[in-house]
Amino acid sequence: MVGKVLFASSLGTIMEYYDYYAYGIAAAVALPALYFGPLGPALGVAVSLATTFLGSIGRPIGGIIFGHLGDTRGRTSSLTLCLAVMGVATLAIGVLPTYAEIGVIAPVLLVTFRIVQGIGHGGEWGGAMTWTRETVGKSRWAGLLTGGVVQGAPGWGTFLANGITTLIILTTGQAFFVVPWGSWRYIFYIGATLLAIAAVIRLKLLDSPLFLMLKSAGRTVRSPVSVAFKRHWRRIIMFSFMLGGTSFTYMASSYVLPYFASKGFQVATATLASSLAGIGTILASLCFGLLADFFGRKRIGIVGTLFGISMVYPYWYCVASLNPILVIAGTFLFTFAWQSVNGAYPAFFTESFPTEVRQTGAGLSLQFNTVWNFVLATAVWTPIIAITGAAAAVPYLLLTGAMLCIISLILWSLPSMKETKGKELAETPPEGS
Fold first, then answer.
1. Residue ranges making up the domain that contains 142
2. CATH number of the domain encompassing residue 226
3. Is position 250 within any domain?
4. 428 lies in a domain?
5. Can you give the pTM of this predicted structure?
6. What is the CB neighbour count within 10 angstroms for residue 325?
7. 33-39 contacts at long range (C-beta below 8 A, 24 or more positions apart)
8. 431, part of any domain
9. pLDDT, tens digit (0-9, with 9 covering 90-100), for 355-368
């Protein structure tokens, strides 16, 4: 049972992040000219990249909807439905006509489908981590299995999105970038197909033993969202600010591509670097997930955040060099450093909420982080790119990302952030905590 749940959880999470990074690549190099051409090169790129983060609007909504379903009806049903929502939205983007074909309705629909993607995306993480953590139960390797195996799955999503894109660019050339019905659409067709396969696999599996016991005892709550906010709102808000590295890596993966394009750097090399960086995510999650089982979630959260901060300017040095080897090595090390926190927070978040609101509480903790991403993208990063251009903007983006990570470090270090390693999952945190 554990092996099947790990596989099904990981597969869905892989496809969640495949979709995210595939859209980010398309938004950086293909969508600006095809959907935002009238805005001009600089503003078109800035607005196109901002749509990447518009999915963040939908993610808390998805966290609420699918968190409610997961905490009242079951983890597997909510997870299967959120994959279906993501799959439909992904396919819709892949078949959407361009601005030249249907006018202003094209970017409007693009934004709409991106938000719907975000709604499906918003239900995936909380459900997958809750399902996994509850299924592994008292295993001494809970951190490794949750933070290492399942949270490492985004690395495979990154690897697939960038690897498939690299292959498509190398085989189709300029058709990827400028042809309205060009090969950039293939990445969405592939994503929709794989999401459908993942949904079918999940349909055949049972819910976690903890949830089944909760449901059979009649202890599910009518409104998990209300209970989560009434009893645990401080925890949810503080957790959402503890993932500055998540904001940072999303920003770097999306906003650095236009920088490379503006410098004449081969986009295929940049996507290859990002693809190999996905391996860095996998390795970091496994290594630090294992360490979290030995030294605790909180200690590894602190160490991982410090590790990431130390890599900010080495990464910028490698990017600015435009040397292919340095770009690939720097991107790999930057990603490995920041994804080290993956080993700590999935177990830490899910172990911090009681079973009756675990999916809602843990899911919203992460999804509110994406709201801060959206605010930064629209209020800070997009104006910087529009004013300075892609080439000059990257140092400023890295600076704001580093500031986020310092906030994360402070929160991880607070005495109120109690260690959860070895905690009994059925134990309910104190009221109002």
1. 2-413
2. 1.20.1250.20
3. yes
4. no
5. 0.85
6. 11
7. 33/177, 33/178, 34/98, 34/99, 34/100, 34/178, 34/180, 35/98, 35/99, 35/106, 35/107, 35/110, 36/99, 36/107, 37/99, 37/100, 38/99
8. no
9. 999 999 999 998 88
